[in-house]
Each structure stands twice: as structure tokens, then as C-alpha cells.
Amino acid sequence: MTTKPAIEIVGLTKSYGDHAVLRGVDLSVPAGTIFALLGSNGAGKTTAVKILSTLLKADGGTATVNGYDVATEPAKVRESISLTGQFAAVDEILTGRENLVLVAQLRRLRNAGLIADGLLARFALTDAAGRRTATYSGGMRRRLDIAMSLIGDPPVLFLDEPTTGLDPQSRIEVWKTVQELAGHGTTLLLTTQYLDDAEHLADRIAVLHEGRIIADGTLAELKQLLPPTEVEYVEKQPSLEDIFLAIVGHDGPSQARTQG
Ligand SMILES: Nc1ncnc2c1ncn2[C@@H]1O[C@H](COP(=O)(O)OP(=O)(O)O)[C@@H](O)[C@H]1O
Ligand SMILES: [Mg+2]
Fold first, then answer.
1. What is the pLDDT of residues 85-110, one digit of tens each?
2. Residue 257 above 50 pLDDT?
3. How far apart are the CA of 211 and the centre of ligand 2, in A?
4. Which of 76, 125, 162, 218 could be joined to 120 by an S-S link, Cβ 3.0–4.6 Å?
5. 245 has pLDDT over 80
6. Is 16 among the domain residues?
7. CATH number of the domain to which 36 belongs
8. Hey, which of 21, 56, 189 would you mutate to test ligand 1's pocket, going by the most ligand atoms within 8 Å of its Cβ?
9. Exposed, middle or buried by CB within 10 Å (0-12, 13-18, 19+), for 151?
10. Residue 176 lies in a domain
11. Which of 112-116, 168-172, 251-255 has the lowest mean pLDDT?
12. Which of ligand 1's atoms lies nearest the C-alpha of 49?
């Protein structure tokens, strides 16, 4: 596909005092793809996302989102995006449905109730719709958070560490949610510290390290950066995660769990 990029970053720099966090970041995210920005804790992922979502000003370089410059057309950028932060924005006093209705009303949409019900169904939260979100599992809360960010159909979605702090089963629920979204043509930029997030979800992966993008490509392209591994004839042992999931079962999102 030759559509214009949904996000284009050139030479982006940002320092906090004399701590240079972004030292010339270049990135191009094709429209309609899932793009993972991979980096360790403190690499500057949230800083980059804040600049792209107009919450923070860059020191240098340029960035456009949905064709709009974040520095000179911030209002247009804000109309084009939604941001799900590292710490879920869900109101615990309200039920899942009330959270969704509230956001739809804040966005001045008609039929807030209908929109909420549609999203509850789409994110497998219908059974839990009338419960206060304080009783939701981490995965359910994160799904609700993502559902809230979809209200108003923004073409570009930022998910800052959508799986951090989740148990393995909840992470898989969130993976399914994210994959579902990509099928609807939304461009997703997600940040993560975890290789397997990127491996499972992303069409393209960029690695942010010491202020720069040190690798950028599809998973297959990135794998070619590594020397081929020697074939070893050992029995494959299941990972701890395999075992955990086999024990707890993982056939789709669970509605009944209350772990937070
Ligand atoms: N407001 C701030 N003031 C000073 N330093 C900050 C601020 N925000 C982030 N940092 C520092 O910038 C670096 C990158 O932070 P951040 O973008 O949050 O990384 P990540 O999201 O990849 O974990 C970290 O060293 C962090 O401590
Ligand atoms: Mg962060």
C-alpha cells in the first residue's frame, strides 16, 4: 500500500534539563498499521507519545499526525487522535457503561447509550456493564480504557504501555482487543517494554534506545538482523507462561475475574 503515513517524525529532540531523552528520532508509521515502539523503561517512549499527542513540546525536529503538524496545528492533531495512557483513565466509582456514556457525552455525541452498548459488546464487557469498574480485572479495565478511547472514531490511537502491569491472561485479552482494532482501519502506535508484545501485535517495530531509533522494520526484517541460531536437538520445554495459561485456561476474555 502507498497511503501517506499516519505519523511522520523527523529529527525529533527533547531534553529535560541537561538530560537528552530524544536525540533525533525519525519514524514513519503507515496508515492503518499497528506500530510498536519498543524500548526499555526510561527510553523515552512516553515522552515521544506526549509530543505526538500535543501534551508536550519538542525541542527540535518535526512531527505530523494524520497530516497535521503537532507544533503548529495542535487542535487538528487532537481531533485526530486518542490517547490511552500508561495509567488507566477509568473512573472506579462508575460502572463500565457509565464510563463509556460519560465520555460519549463529553464528546457531545448523540446516542451515548447506544454507542456505549455497542462498545461493551465489541469488547466482551456486556455482562460486566452494570458493575462498578473497581471490581474489574486488570485486563477488563484496560479493555474498557481502550473502548473509551475509541469513542468518536479517531483515525490514530496511541496506546502507551497497554500491557504493563497485567497478568499473562489479561495481556492476551488486550492483545486480542488491539488486533481487533487494526481490522477496522485505525492506525495504532503502541509502546511497550516487552518483545513479545511487539512480536504478537505489530506490523512494524521500532526500537528506541539511547534517544534514537536503532532498528525499524517488520518482525521478519528485524529477525534478519540477528545471526541464524544453530539448530539444537533438545526437547522443547513449555515456558512458565505456557504452563500458567494451561492451568488457568485462556479461551477468550474472562468476565468474572476480580483481580486488579
Ligand atoms: N517531566 C520530566 N522531568 C524530568 N525528567 C523526566 C520527565 N519525564 C520523564 N523524564 C525522564 O526522561 C526519561 C524518559 O522518560 P519516559 O519518556 O517516561 O520513558 P519511558 O516511557 O520509555 O519509560 C526518563 O529518564 C525519565 O526519568
Ligand atoms: Mg512510559
1. 766 678 889 999 999 999 999 888 99
2. no
3. 14
4. 125
5. no
6. no
7. 3.40.50.300
8. 21
9. buried
10. yes
11. 251-255
12. 17
